[in-house]
């Protein structure tokens, strides 16, 4: 078989050269059509629902927030995987969608289903910012001297630190967690 291929290639030299040039041209054209990214995003489409229920134990948050959200999102189409995490005062539900699912379609489906979730007063679930898996998540703590009350530390975070950090290029969102919010009545 190899001998026959070699004999054919040597006797039909111009046909082999033409075929090689055509294949090289197609390869070059395909190379030029490729999208080149420093960090290509190969992750599935994810939608993350975050709900705060301040001052509540993890068990209470799970029963009153996480489980109702999970039930409301049970029939979202094209979902491959559902994961949830519940900690003190916070519920996070993550849905992973099938390959090729449009990000905005997935977010719209989740938002529509969230309307039917029966949640306690004051709990407003939000969708995490539309970011890729390449994005970073950073947690930080704001420490202050004992002369500052927890409300003052929270105000400093909300009105001083957060606005400055949101001006930094590449920061999509900042979710503040903890500390009582100043209320005017």
**Strand/helix succession:** HHEHEEHEH
Sketch the major β-sheet: 4 strands, antiparallel
CATH architecture of the largest domain: 2-Layer Sandwich
The CA-CA distance between the termini, in Å, is 91 Å
Q: How many individual β-strands?
A: 4
Q: Going across the major beta sheet, what is the strand order?
A: 2-3-1-4
Distinct helical segment count: 5
Reported by name, the CATH topology of the largest domain is Alpha-Beta Plaits
Rg calculated over all Cα atoms:
27 Å
Could you list the spans in which at least 5 consecutive residues all have pLDDT below 50?
none
CATH class of the largest domain: Alpha Beta
Mean pLDDT: 88
- Quaternary status of these chains? single chain
- Taken as a percent bin, the fraction of beta residues is 5-15%
CATH homology group of the largest domain = Multidrug efflux transporter AcrB pore domain
Instruction: Determine the fraction of residues in helical runs and give it as a percent range.
Output: 40-55%
Structural class: alpha+beta
Number of domains: 3
Shape: elongated
Provide a descriptive summary of the structure in words.
The chain is an alpha+beta fold and 185 residues long. The chain folds into 3 domains: 2-33; 42-132, Multidrug efflux transporter AcrB pore domain (Alpha-Beta Plaits, 2-Layer Sandwich), CATH 3.30.70; 136-185, no CATH class. The protein is 41% helix and 14% strand. The chain contains 5 helices and 4 strands. The chain has helices at 2-11, 13-33, 58-72, 103-114, 150-166, and strands at residues 46-52, 79-87, 90-97, 126-127. A 4-stranded antiparallel β-sheet has the order 2-3-1-4. Strand 2 and strand 3 (90-97) form a beta hairpin.
